[in-house]
Structure formats: C-alpha cells, structure tokens
Amino acid sequence: MIVAMQADATEEQINHICDRIREFGYAPHVIRGTERTVIAAVGPGDKKEHIEQLKSADGVENAFPILQPFKLVSKEVKKQKSAIRVDEITIGDGGFVVMAGPCSVEGYEQLMTTAKAVAASGAQILRGGAYKPRTSPYDFQGLAEEGLKLLAEARRQTGLKVITEVLDTEGVELVAEYADILQVGARNMQNFALLKKLGEVQKPIMLKRGLSATIKEFLLSAEYIVTHGNPNVMLCERGIRTFETATRNTLDLAAVPLLNELTHLPVIIDPSHATGKRSLVRPLAKAAVAVGADGLMTEVHPFPELAWSDGPQSLRPEEFARMMHELQPYINLRQNEMN
Amino acid sequence: MIVAMQADATEEQINHICDRIREFGYAPHVIRGTERTVIAAVGPGDKKEHIEQLKSADGVENAFPILQPFKLVSKEVKKQKSAIRVDEITIGDGGFVVMAGPCSVEGYEQLMTTAKAVAASGAQILRGGAYKPRTSPYDFQGLAEEGLKLLAEARRQTGLKVITEVLDTEGVELVAEYADILQVGARNMQNFALLKKLGEVQKPIMLKRGLSATIKEFLLSAEYIVTHGNPNVMLCERGIRTFETATRNTLDLAAVPLLNELTHLPVIIDPSHATGKRSLVRPLAKAAVAVGADGLMTEVHPFPELAWSDGPQSLRPEEFARMMHELQPYINLRQNEMN
Amino acid sequence: MIVAMQADATEEQINHICDRIREFGYAPHVIRGTERTVIAAVGPGDKKEHIEQLKSADGVENAFPILQPFKLVSKEVKKQKSAIRVDEITIGDGGFVVMAGPCSVEGYEQLMTTAKAVAASGAQILRGGAYKPRTSPYDFQGLAEEGLKLLAEARRQTGLKVITEVLDTEGVELVAEYADILQVGARNMQNFALLKKLGEVQKPIMLKRGLSATIKEFLLSAEYIVTHGNPNVMLCERGIRTFETATRNTLDLAAVPLLNELTHLPVIIDPSHATGKRSLVRPLAKAAVAVGADGLMTEVHPFPELAWSDGPQSLRPEEFARMMHELQPYINLRQNEMN
Amino acid sequence: MIVAMQADATEEQINHICDRIREFGYAPHVIRGTERTVIAAVGPGDKKEHIEQLKSADGVENAFPILQPFKLVSKEVKKQKSAIRVDEITIGDGGFVVMAGPCSVEGYEQLMTTAKAVAASGAQILRGGAYKPRTSPYDFQGLAEEGLKLLAEARRQTGLKVITEVLDTEGVELVAEYADILQVGARNMQNFALLKKLGEVQKPIMLKRGLSATIKEFLLSAEYIVTHGNPNVMLCERGIRTFETATRNTLDLAAVPLLNELTHLPVIIDPSHATGKRSLVRPLAKAAVAVGADGLMTEVHPFPELAWSDGPQSLRPEEFARMMHELQPYINLRQNEMN
Q1: What span, in angstroms and rounded, lies between the C-alpha atoms of D162 and A72?
Q2: What CATH number did the domain enclosing A19 receive?
Q3: Which of A115, B47, B153, C249 is least enclosed by beta carbons within 10 angstroms?
C-alpha cells in the first residue's frame, strides 16, 4: 500500500506511520520528495482495515492499496476461464448459452407456451421468477412455491434447465430443490447473508451486478460465494444506473472484456433489464456475442401486453426466434476466431 | 395515467387501448392533437402493472403515472409529521436527536469509553454495529451477539438508547431483543424480505437510503415496512453514489426539505458515511440542522487510528464534544423559528 | 402537454390554468379523477417556456411535455438515414467507416507513420488533434495551425480524409480550411455559440456526446447545428460519466439502436475515449459493428509509450491492423443481413 | 508518482521504467513485494503526460499521481482565503454575499421591479442573463446587448453590483464593459478557450461547476483563469447531475467545506439551479450559511408564472424577503462563531 503524508508532516508523524506499518507486518519504505513524503509498504496484502487506520493517523493525507482485494475469483489465481457445468450444458467453455423466459411465472399456460417456444428456437435454459423483488409493496410478488413447481414441470416437458431468483436466506433451500441455477438479483448483490448461504449450496449461482456496483464490488460479492464454498459462480451484467432516462439502465458492455481480464468467472449479458425496451434487445444481443460474453439472458412472453411485469422489454416468441436466427452467424464467427 | 400514442397509431389501436383502460377500471379520455393522440385515464390508482401492459401494446409510444406510488407514508394521507417514541425520547417532534458511537462494536473498553463520552456531550442514542455488512469477505464482520450484549450493557451504564443494524431476516428477532431502534443499511434498502419482516416488529426502524435509490424508491421501501404493520419508520439520508470521488458519497441535503414535503416520516442525516472524511462532519451537521432534519447520526471512536472500520470518518470524543457545542445555537435558532 | 394539479387545487386555479393554456394557443381538456385533476393540452408543440410557466402557477403539482423537443434531426421528419458525403466516402449508407490516428498531432514523423499505417490497414479517415482541450492548463495544448498543416500533408500523402477538433468560434474558419470533417468535443457539446457557428460551415460535423448528456440533449445540440444551416451532422458516442472508475467512461452502446430509432443522423462509436484502455478497444469495436453503428473512431500511435496524450488507450499500428482484420467478417455479416 | 508493475513483469521491464522515470527528471525507488513490484518516483511534479506514458509501457499495471494537479488555486500555495473586491463589496472575507435576480433579463419593467425588490431585502449583487445558454435552439436565447444595458440601468437605479453570464470568447469584451462580475455557466466550465480569455480580463469571474465535473476538474478550470492572469475567481456549486430526478440536480453541499480545505477561492451556492424547485431554496440557503459558503446566488422573478425561463425555481419578491429575513440570524451566528 502507499501512504502519502501531508506537505507539513513532521518527522515524528512519519516515524509513527512506519511503526504502525511494521506492526501490521509490512516493510515500510520512506521516499522523500521535494513536496511531500510518501511511504510505500510491501507485505502480506493490502488490508482495508490497515489502510483505514493509516488514513486516520495525524499527518497522513491519503493511503491506498496497490493490490486488488479479490483473490479466488481473480485471473491471477486461475488463468483459464471456469467452465460451469449444468448437467450436459457448459457455461464458459467458449460457447454462447441463451437463457430465456418470462419475467414472472404467471401460470401453467403462460409458462409452458413460453418454454416450448424458446426451446424450439434454441434456448438452453428457462428463466422465470417465482419470487419477485418489487420496488412497490403493491406490485405482484410472485407465485412462490407454486411458481417453482411450474418451472420444474416446464423442465420436464422441454428438457430446458431452470434458472430462478432466490430472495433471501430463508428461501435458499427450497429454491435449490427446484432450480438448476440460482439467481441473485441486482438489489441483493450486497446481501451478504444471502451470499454466504449460497456458498454452501451445491448448485451454480448467477450473480447480477448491483445497480450502482463497481466492477471491484461485483467481484468481491462473487468472492463471498466462492470463499464460502461454492466455486460455480457466473456474473451477469444487466445495466447500471446512470443519469440517462431514455433507457431503463445503461448496459456496460465494456465490463465484459474487462471482466475477462480480471476474473475467470463466466459473464452473461441481460439486455432486457438493461434497456427496458424490446426493440433494443436484438442489436445488443449481437453485441454481447461480439464483445465476448459467455451467454445471454432475455425476457420472452407470449403476450407482452398481458404480462404481469416487464412487458415493455419482453420479446414475443416470434421476435425471440428471429433474434436466435440472427445471432447464430455471430456465434459461428466467434467460434471461427477462436480456432 | 397518461398514454401517448405513436404519431402513426391507427384508430383500431387507439380503441384497443381505451378498451384495456376500461378493463382496468379507469375511464379513458381521448385527446387528439395535430401531431399525436394522447389518452388520459382516471380511476382507482396508477398501477405499475397497468402502465407496463399499456406500454407493451402496439401503437403506444409511452405511458406514465400521474399519482405517486406510495400511499401510507405520504403527506397526502397524514399532514403532520410522525413523532416516533423511543421511551422518553421523541424523534420528529421538531427537536434534533443525535445518535453517535463507533462504526463497529470492538470490545468492552472501546464501547464504554465512547458511550460515556457521547452521553456526556449530549447524544441521546448510541450507535454501534454488531453485524457489519462489508464489501469484502476478508473484512471484519462484527462481534455478533457479543456486540449486542455490549450495547445493552452500555445502555445500562449511560442511559443512552441503542440503535444497531440488522442484516437479514434470520437476525431480526435477536437484534430486536437488544436494540431500541433497528437500522436497515443502505445495501439492504431493497431487501424486501427483510423489510416485510421488520413490518412485524414492535420497535422503530431507521431505514437508510440505498446508494443509488431515488427518493421515490426510498419511500416505497418505507411503505413496505408500514404496510406490513410497523408505522414507526424514520428515514436516513447517508449520501448517494455519484461520479465524484473526492468524498466517499455525495450527501443529498436537498432530500431533507423534499422529504418533508412528500412524507410525514422523520428524516435523519448521516454525514460520516456521506463524506468518509472527519473534517467535513461538523459543517455538514450544522447544515443538517439548518435544512430541517430531525436528527443526526455520526461516528465517534476514542482512537480512530485503531478503529477496525471507518476510522477516517470517525470523530474523536473531543471533536464530537466541540460539534455538539457548536450545534446547540443552530438548534436553538431553529426552535425559535418554529415558535 | 400534461398538467397535473395538486390534490387540493381549487376550481379557480384549474380555470386559471385553462386560460393560460388557451393563451398559449393550445386547447385544454380537463380530466377529473377521484384523487386529482389533470389537464391535457394539445396544440402547436410543447414549448419548454409554456411548461415552465404552468409549473410555476399556484395549484400545479407538475407539468410535462408529450412531444419530443427535437424536430429536424428526428426520424419523424425523415425516415431514411442521412448519408453524409465526404468526397468519395459516404457515412451512413449502411457501410462501416473507420477513423483512426493519434490523439494529438505531435510532429511530422509521428503523424506520417501513423497515417500510412492506418491507411494500409483500411482506415478511410485520419484523426488527429491540433487543438487539444485539456483538463489542466499545464498539459500539452496542441500544435495549433502547424498541426493542421501536418494533417493536410498526411492527407496528400495517403489519400485519407481528415477529421480534427475545433475548440471555439474563433477557430472555426481556420480548421474548416484544412479539415474534411470538423469535430466538436464532448466538453463542447453544449457550447451553443460554437454549434451555431458550425451551422454556417459547408463541411460535415461530428458531434461528440457530452460526458453527462442525455440522448435528448445530445439530439438538441445536433438540432442547433442543423437549424443554423448545416444538415451534415454525425453523432459520436464516446462514453458517459458514471460512478464506475475501472474504465475511463462507460460506453453506452444501447445508444446506437436507440439513436437509430430517434434520428436519421449517422452514429459513430469511439471505444478509445470510452474505456481509456487499449485492450478493450478491439472487442468493443466488434460490438459497435454488431449493434448497428455507422463507423468507428479509434486512437493509434506508433509508440504509445511516447505519446504526449492518451497513450494508454492508443493502439499500436500492428494492433490496429489486427483489429481491422478481425472486424471485416463482422462488417460482411452485417452487410449480408441487410440484403 | 507511483507505478505498479504487473505480477509477471520482467526485470528488463522494471529497468526500462526506471530509465524513463530518470529521463523525466524524477528519482525512481524500486520496492519489491511478494506479489508485485512498485516503483515510486519523486521529483518535479506528477505530470499527467509522464503518468500516461508510463501506463502505456509493457509490464505496467497502473500508474498514478500523488500530488494534486492544481497549484495556484491551492491552499498549499496560499493559506488565507482570497477576498475578492467588487468596489465596496468584498466576497470571501467571512461575510455572506447574496446575488439575486431573474434568470433572464426580459425587459425594463421586469428587471427594475426585481432589482428594487432584492435591493430592498438586502441583496448586494443583481443577477440576470442577457445571453442564455439553452439546451434547445427553440428556447429564448436572451436579449443580448439590450439586456446588458438594462442591467447597467438597474445598477444605476439601485446601487447593486451586476453579475451576468458570458457565453463565448467573442462576447467577453462586451460583457466586461457592462458587468461587475462575469459568470461562466456550468456547460462552459471546460470551455478552455473562454477560460483563457477570462484570464486577461480585469474583472472578477464566477465559475460554475460543470454538471458532471469533479472537484479536481473544477479547480483545474479555475487554475486556467488564474494562470492566464486573473486571480479574482470565485467558485459556484450549483448542483451536479446524478440518477435522482426528483430534483433538477443534486446540490453537493459537502463541496463547500471540502473546497475550503483545498483552495483559497471563495465558494458560492446556487440552490435555485441545484433543485429547480422554489420551495427547496429557502432551507438550502440556510444550510449554505451553516456549512460555510461565502455567498448565495438565487433566482427571483416578480411573476414566476410569466417568466421566460426557470419560473418553477424562481422566488417571488416576498418569498425572497422572507428568506433574507430568516437567513440573517444564521449569518449572525456564523459571525459569532468566528469571533
């Protein structure tokens, strides 16, 4: 870590900082400039606690880490991308996996129609919310276990794998019984109790990026799950919150190649939540392939106009089919590039 | 709600929207402009579900609500500010309540020293985290129940009331046993399972604004707690996330008079987390009084340089004393204004 | 426009608003709901001035427009994309134009080497700053007219067209003498005096999106140039400012299909400034093709380590060559889609 | 500056960086950690150009400055606040200066009525726009020189000093002829050509913070004016752009004490533009005094409902009078604190 002293820091203050740095188990190097003194400390890791304590000391202007705070999810620990197995499907092996389905599970007819349609168009995983995190207490909160049962039935009928969201620690066990992949929603990305519990689960987790989470925070949340025992984590970029109101959120596609440099975890793109606009989903799905994502999550509803949630961003089955058709040459192209 | 049709919407599409609006129980009013047709719908409330469904229909360009989505917390429902009682202390009665203490409870000595100091300077409520939501899994996670016990002991010795954070649904019961006020942290503002559970608790709740939560979302999260049975909610503005990096967050003081217009719930300001910088706490505390907040939450540590968390923003006891001393004339001034 | 009255607005206040609306030349429609009254006004356009005046009246809670404020740049005015001619090159005709070159023109050798390299790899337009807008007065401010002359010389030697930035009204004439396309930088997007002057120029303009400009503001700035006489405007998305610090800015690729819905102006993507990181440029360039952009602007320097500005985001000539090589199949694929 | 090498940087790469650092005139200090090597360089200043070049070199992970890039405006250069004289008025001497008037100068009657009213209530400086930077080309652009003449006439009649905005380099001379203080608007904060020209003017400048400008960028823009010869610069915080839409912008009041630590330039608060809401101006004005600002700029209009711009945020004369009346005890209180 680096400690920058104030311009008028005293010799005593500088010595005090060196002492504290040694106490923490690092070796201090004092570098005296014409304008101020800087102390570099090298040692066992740049603990936030140590940095905060040094920042609190008299005579210190600033202190900051050199090392990245995440470890197990880092590419420095494991160079090759983690391929996550969901039975016969693999996510992160260079292919492009498509997850599709309704925002909320609304009933038998709606779910089976959607599931069959997306399966026919080539999706491999069915999405659908049984528990819905809703901004307003007056909005539809999901069918709960009944929704989970319908998802399981749709899997039986179509062979699709199932991904669905888990909202709290109390729901983990039940959701894990039914789902093939457990999803953590953006609003729960820093629900650390939930993350810890998901570390004990045997199923893969898809962690969505929080609305205002930095890449560093995103990876630290993944690190929570991994350090608690579950290495099968994939990341999902679904748009961040910015000043722009023309789209629901701002899709950060640069996060894909950046994450590919920083971590070995697979990265999924969700253009539906990112934009909130059906017509933007198809071009962004192509961009997701081109930029190097490992997969796509997108919302599909047989009648968006009757959807209980997220209708404006849901593709109709025929629109989804067209997207899948147009996506294929991009996927092939990428495959060729890798060979 | 208002539905704006596309410039080239057909008569049939317009009629279809009117039919759907009637189905929802509203009365449609078609207004034909030279450039486009707008349909206004008045009726039982502007349900998000209805708006999304209309937005999903062919020929519709946009649809949006006129009414605010929050109800029970709204000033339209209750004109007078809700005064929240914590034994003999009242929050929201026009006075100014000060909550102070360490970021984390670290041990007996640290907590008692701090509690006595802040009590002596005039604080009424002791803050201190027993469960800590930390961005990194490698950071200190709190003393858990031992921390709660120390807080209770500090209350016994000083007479201060106790506020502390609850992290998840599973912890609610235990924390409610020890604390006088339960705090929901910024990262949990949209942990809806937790909010629902807190609706069933008999103790007051302080809800912190999420890092990227709009005022509307903030009030809807409060609405969750209130609709589930607990009307004793106070709001805490603690800085929002912006592009600025010179401060930890950006304190949104305009939120105070704005919330005072929109809701009857009391509003607390936390300048410690908002800025992350000790030297900015005192001037912002004065501003909080001047702008009309109902109270202040601030971090105090006997030795910030040894704090296990948030040292750079923690006041030393003598700095806290000075702040309290300087705050008093501002509080008096405001009191005079109200009479 | 729509005017929402306060819940307790009086009959007199409602009548007053109707009178004002008629004064403005609109026809008011009063819609009385159970909770509040809404007045819809249809007429000659939703002028900001009128909306602000109505918002200022007693009894009004809010007032907002239905119509988009931009006109000439709007797709409602002209359905087909505007193809902008720069001699034999056309931008916006379905092809993909590449603009490349150094951040700053530094000297003869540097510019000619770069120009020849990017021409050899297939770029059509040479970029290079002669006037540099720099955050700090202590940074290199550009070679000024000498830089313009070098750009002209590079054009002579390579056949590349030249795009370069104009910083202020006083420089317009001189830059227009040398450049084929004049660039307005992000920090000048709302320099309205400059935009007006560029409306009188006979050469195409590339307008960069401001760091915190909404899509609506972006289009209104383009509208300034067009209403002042110059229809040859292309838009450049170059990343917006968000809370994320891992990249220099956040590239808003969803803006491309959104702009393609709203405006007939061509859209260029600049992944160099958007990310500030050389390694992210290539994947984002592919995504720019896939998402439907009309072209790319990217920084290239023979020795990034010696660049006077923007070295970390500049491609080396061989990296640029590789990018161009990899881009071609994406461009072909898109061409096939359109046929 | 600090250069962090990649984990797998070679000895050769490390030596190369040291050579470059010496070339720049700094002395390199190599610090070898278990996980990576860090090179600290101390010397003549942390030039952005040097940092970017080092970042571009092979084997380097990151490079960043230790020193702040602004100099002349920095508190390290001058401890005492700069008191700016405008004839008999002084800004920055511990007092609190109030600037008030209409958004736009609309005509004789409107301006004289407002000027007399704000003078009667105790304002010292009259604001009013003769040249208006408007997002849309269809909005009112100001009365131009006629507006300047009216401002001069209002000064004659009331004794108020005059502040007004200058939009571009070409207007500087004319505006300087009429105004006592020249204002740079938020959208022009990084119009460097304008800043340079204002460095040659003999009148004080008020520089408004850009919508998404960091504190560092804000100070560097002030540095432009000062390095070009004009030391009489005051800063104006007027709200920054965030995700929140309930207010027009987010007023960053923490910027006041932070700027008071970093710079000797006076700081003014503009709560009118910051919030866009008349009812929020009064409480925030009090907060501005409490937090340590040197003055206030606020919009006043005799009939906000007829204002050509910014009506919703303009105070009526009687509301301004009330604000001034209520502000006085806060100003007195602050005065007492300083004695």
Answers
A1: 62
A2: 3.30.70.1140
A3: B153
Nearest CA in chain C to D53: C305
C43 and C182 within one domain: no
- CA–CA distance, C1 with C68 (Å, rounded to integer): 11
Q: Which token pair is C166?
A: 């104009």
Query: Does the ipTM surpass 0.85?
Result: yes
Of B138, B192, B212, the CB nearest to A211: B212
Say if residues A29 and A39 touch (Cβ distance below 8 Å): yes
A332: domain CATH number?
A: 3.20.20.70
- Give contacts of A35 with chain D, Cβ < 8 Å: 45, 67
Of A49, D48, A325, D186, the C-alpha closest to C140 is D48
Do A13 and A127 lie in one domain? The reply is no
Tell me, yes or no, whether D186 and D233 share the same domain: yes
Query: A: neighbours with 3+ CB pairs under 8 Å?
Result: B, C, D
Task: Tell me the residue range of the domain where C34 lies.
Answer: 2-64
The 10s digit of each residue's pLDDT in A310-327 is 999 999 999 999 999 999
Residue C111 domain flag: yes
- Nearest by CB to A7, from D34, D40, D76: name it: D76
- Cβ–Cβ below 8 Å for B56 and A192: no
- Domains held by chain C: number: 2
In this structure, is residue D76 part of a structural domain? Answer: no
CA–CA distance, B293 with C203 (Å, rounded to integer): 56
**C279 contacts in chain A (CB < 8 Å):** 257, 261
Asked whether residue D307 falls in the same domain as residue D230, the answer is yes
Q: Is residue C320 part of a domain?
A: yes
**Looking at the domain assignment, is residue C74 inside a domain?**
no
Q: Per-residue b/e over D57-74, b at no fewer than 16 CB within 10 Å?
A: bebbeebeebbbbbbbbb
Same domain, D32 and D162: no
Structure tokens at B95: 């006075």
Of C64, C98, C117, which one is at a domain's C-terminal end?
A: C64
Task: Give yes or no: residues D117 and D42 share one domain.
Answer: no
| Torsion-angle region of D59 (φ positive above 0: left; ψ -120 to 50: alpha; else: beta) | left
Decide if B25 contacts B43 (C-beta within 8 A). Answer: yes
Is residue B146 within 8 Å of B186, Cβ to Cβ?
no
CB contact under 8 A, B2 and C40: yes
Question: Given an 8 Å threshold on Cβ–Cβ distance, is B170 in contact with A171?
Answer: no
Question: Which residues on B lie below 8 Å from D298 (Cβ)?
Answer: none
Kindly report the pTM of this predicted structure: 0.96
Q: Kindly indicate the confidence band of residue B182, based on its pLDDT and cuts at 50, 70 and 90.
A: very high
pLDDT tens digit string along C64-117?
888 888 899 999 889 999 999 999 999 999 999 999 999 999 999 999 999 999
User: Which bin fits B128, alpha (ψ -120 to 50), beta or left (φ > 0)?
Assistant: left
Cross-chain CB nearest to C31 (options B42, B76, B243): B42
Q: What is the pLDDT of residue A58?
A: 92
Chain B residues within 8 A of A188 when measuring between CB atoms: 191
Kindly report, residue by residue over D198-244, the tens digit of the pLDDT: 999 999 999 999 999 999 999 999 999 999 999 999 999 999 999 99
